[in-house]
Amino acid sequence: MEEELAVSYDVAGVRGLYTSLSDGWIYLNSHDTPQIPERVSSAVARSFRMSAAVPQPEPSRGSHVREAVGRPEGETFFADARAAVADLCGVTPGRVVLGPSLPVLYMALTAAMRPLFRHNSSIVLSNVGRAQCNTMLTRADADVRWAQPDLATGELPAWQYEKLVDGSTRLVAIPAAHAELGTVVAVRDIVERVRERSRAWVLVDASSFAPYRLITFDDWRADIVALDVGELGGPRVAALVFRDEAMLRRLDSDMLELPVSAGLAGGVSATVDHYASLAAAGAGSGGDGRGVAPRQSRRARLTASMGELAGYMEELREDLETFLGTLPVVHIVGVTGEAAEDADTDRIPRLTFGVRGVPSATVHQRLVANGMVATEASASELLRDMGVEEMGGAVTVGLGPFNTQADIVQLTRTVASLA
């Protein structure tokens, strides 16, 4: 298996892009605290250092060229950040709005959409999404309806939107994937059902999905895609990406003008460049001979790089579920059990598990004692409904681009020692 993976994805080369891995820990907490690539930390350091500096004017290039002479360099970082997010989603920069965090952007979007709300308007949310973001959206002057997940698998069934959505619905918010269970939401299916019933906008939080698979905005046919760059191992900057610029003209655009640190914005482009370079991590500067040469557009490099990353991470996910799933004392939430046994659920490489008869705090401590960093599962409404509290809590594992099969073997052996 390792020989096969090395051909398509050089994980050793990828690990070299993260200097933090030299401390000896096995990081299995990408869902909570992603490791920061060296190129990103260097870019942020430079951005903070140079954001207030004024660059020297370049020699004249003709009367048609207008330069912001005498302006701080940091002002260019915002345009670079929007362009990077646009490349990540396959859109144009004019459709990207930046903000300091997703909850703040969701709050601003709620306020900006006031002209669209009418008497008896409604919005549709789900507790599969982030609680903080849902809280911001419930501030809208609209009736709130809730889509319910399948408690056996954690999936969000699309069929229920036929009943939840009607002519009064103005906004439907869904995640692209659950941050802890790893279940991938059938975004396209939900969007199509919403379109049949309403002209509501569909807002998709792609933050947990983006570190593993390529985002192609048009494939989802959503109206707005939300992204927390921090979940990619980048700076704490968030973005809303709109279907087209005409949508922005229907909003109270002043509400979407949010302050963002120039120093942090300067690291967004480096974050996207990092993911565009993963497929060539083990190759020389001339590219790896597989269609990811530096001369190609960043979107083209992202397509090639994320394709190889997705294949590698899917194999690791299968090993993670298989190895842990063979332990009789382990219950993987949404995977183990008769109700979930035959489910064909699409997942990203994240899962939440418990050990029967062993409190989650003890499981977590044993992992730490053996050099592994994971997290105890959150006390979210969905996980409570799925029985996590009854089994004494659970531990969440989230894999990153640098994890290896050896990490999974070490995890499995350590958990098995608790039996």
From TrEMBL:
Gene Ontology molecular function, alphabetical: transaminase activity
Presence of keyword Transferase: yes
Residue span(s) of domain Aminotransferase class V: 26-228
The keyword Transferase belongs to this UniProt entry's keyword annotation: yes
Keywords: Aminotransferase, Transferase
Gene3D superfamilies: Aspartate Aminotransferase, domain 1, Type I PLP-dependent aspartate aminotransferase-like (Major domain)
Matches recorded under InterPro entries: Aminotrans_V_dom, PyrdxlP-dep_Trfase, PyrdxlP-dep_Trfase_major, PyrdxlP-dep_Trfase_small
SUPFAM superfamilies: PLP-dependent transferases
UniProt superkingdom: Bacteria
Name of the molecule in the record: Aminotransferase class V-fold PLP-dependent enzyme
